[in-house]
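Quick one - first record:
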Amino acid sequence: METLQDWLAHCESLHPKTIEMGLERVQGVAARMGLRLDCPVITVAGTNGKGSTCAMLEAIALQAGYRTGVYTSPHLVHFEERCRIHGEIAGADALVPHFERVEAARDGVTLTYFEFTTLAILGLMAESRLDIAILEVGLGGRLDAVNIVNADCAVITSIDLDHMDLLGGDRESIGREKAGIMRTGRPVIVSDPVPPQSVLDRAVEIGADLWTLGRDFNFSGDKQQWAWAGRGRRYSGLAYPALRGANQLVNASGVLAAFEALRPRLPVTAQAVRNGLGMVELPGRFQIVPGEPALVLDVAHNPHSVAALAANLDAMGFYPTTHAVFGAMADKDLAPMLAKVGPMIDRWYFTDLPTPRARAAAQLQAVWQAQNKRADTAASIHPGPMAALQAAVAAADPADRIVVFGSFYTVGGVLKDGVPRLQAKHLAS
């Protein structure tokens, strides 16, 4: 195994299951690797908003002059996107030695793809002389491989129903799992405006330093600017974050609270906050690609995030026709997702995805038909995201809008050759 792709194929073959919850196997391998992050660590868990929160934490820290390391998952196109060192995507050649270290330390222990790759990325981060490490929790919190790291600050973003087969069937059960990233005596920032009681109870139970939105920090804003206030600091006249969507102020508020909680170790200036929020980028989160027709890319893949997508689409203004390319995993709660965004969509393009975990396009269409209440809509099925997008472009007028959403595989499938530059058929000549 010489290349990163060789190692990723090896990781996929090791374990019969995609997910096996539990920390014992990963902790044992990490101990044999001597894995240790010698810098402040922020761990981010939640159902929605994790990626945006990590991106804003990174952007502000970079503007403050800190050397950053960020681990997020999954990736959109290339595996290396999961790790950024000082704002740059890690190189495949830099990652390979750390896959070799994991294999050497594994000593016969069976690791899932996520566990093996998490250890390799943490290994690279540990050797990168970081000032701050930002770790996104892949699934849940308590039993996720990322939780082997004792974070100096935990951030819990919005919590909603997703992965219920593994995390529990209601927000209280899911919140209990997310709360597993808290540590005694250390700050935990809860940016969900209405957090499950289980999250608050767990913080009290273990003696974490709980920061909640509305009590320990809050924000306000008008159409031009917004303001934030925390326990010991205020910011006023802030420009809105560069990431689009009304929900981003909630995420940004949690980010500022995290920096306030860590101020003795990681001070940031008001200018770093302004510049970071103004320059932050994150592909696939209500990403609008200029052109005709307009193109929106969003990895919304559960009812809560799809509701936010629908609200953001509504705020964009009038488009004669909205076309939607959609693909999703088999375990998603499809009916409420389709119902929430359905009023906004005039034509659907359901797509197969290149993973056995995905719901077939024909099945997606059947679920849509069963709950569709509009007589003026149409739908078709396609073998892949790019084929579905091409069909949408062929059918769209220049003034229309195309939305690509659902799984990371859906959005990544249209980004794999770079950000699409679309042109309606009427302008092609």
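second record:
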Amino acid sequence: MALIRSTLAQFLAKADLPAVRAFFLSLTALSGALLLALYSSAAAELGQLVLASTSALAALAIAGWVAVTLVPALARRTPLRWIGYKIEYRISREGWIYFGGLLLVALAALNTGNNLLFLILASLIALILMSGILSSISLSGVEMRLVLPEHIFAGQQVRAVVELENQKLTLPSFSLRVEALQEKGAAASAILEKPVYFPYLPKRESLPQSVPMTFQRRGVYRQDAFRIVTRFPFGFLQKSRRLELKTEALVYPSVEVTAEYMAVLPVLQGALESITRGRGQDLYALRDYVHTDSARLVHWKATARSGSLIVREFTREEESRILLVLDPHSAAAEKPAANSPSTPIQIDERFERAVALCANIAWHFYQANALLQFRCVGMDTPLAPAERNIFEILGHLAVVQPLPVDPEQKLIAELASCPELFKIIVTSQPRGFFPHAVWSSSYIVFLDDPVSG
């Protein structure tokens, strides 16, 4: 008795009480309507037409009330809402062969009138009907989730997770294939290039599957819809169901070491050491003494020659303070035209090299834990440890596009006004347009040859 009470208490705790009340109210009302209908039939047999008509109308009114009020409420709460899913299908090659054999059996049965052939024909048709029902059940009640890594770099293999959830209460699903749905007139999706196969999906369970993905270029990848396909159980029909699952992936530029980056790096480090002041061991410059300087920095020989106090400055050996600049202006850039989604995007390979090199330099200073600031047209991060803003910088580099050449050179003019920071400027423009104030406090990387500045 205690076990029964415990089971009943657990059932009531998990049950949807409004739905349970609506169900039992519907059951009671329909039972009453059935009794009134039976009473109406008996009254009609006895010749009591008024009583029979009244009972029949009352039964009809009760049934109508249940259909209008209680049935929709129960339908909204039922887990079988997936019955209304739109399912597309096509006949497979095996299915056409099967239908051809079925047609031959049908012609033979009609011509001969053989009962055995009619029995075989009925079995073959029943097999088709059963195949359609089982495949529809296998597709129904299945939902999908796609989980992408937080950070994705171009050209680097990552592992995403495709997860299917079977919401059916009693039946499993078999032989499901998940694939990207390509719209007509749209470019092929790059998020899920290969189908993912699930041989078995238990009832009321989720099943994840790890999928390797590689995005060849930086940018934003979008996929608006997927579909689940099955040929279960016999392969005669291929049924599919569309899933609206808008997915977006932001792909950073590649930070893999390239020959161009390796050629630039030694020159860049030398320029940084020679232009940056600090408290290192290598002599940077001599200057006049100020009251905040330590007496240990006094250069006595130079002081004796000049007759005034002279102090030494050294190159910095601790943290670097870097302003990384990407100049997005390119002579090859054109104003964007109103193209259809299927029109291929023209890629400026020279500009892509500039973006990739800028990403490599930013990643280098992130690994060195330097103080890094990034500036581009429409983007300016504050000076901070590179670990704080590296992914904000890479996120901008993932979507930045080349711009037409600016005659006023606003970005370059702004750089000339802040000589206190060492600037690394990456540009795909030709040489000869940077002012002297920028050259004196910057290292400029041109893309016309591997090493420049």
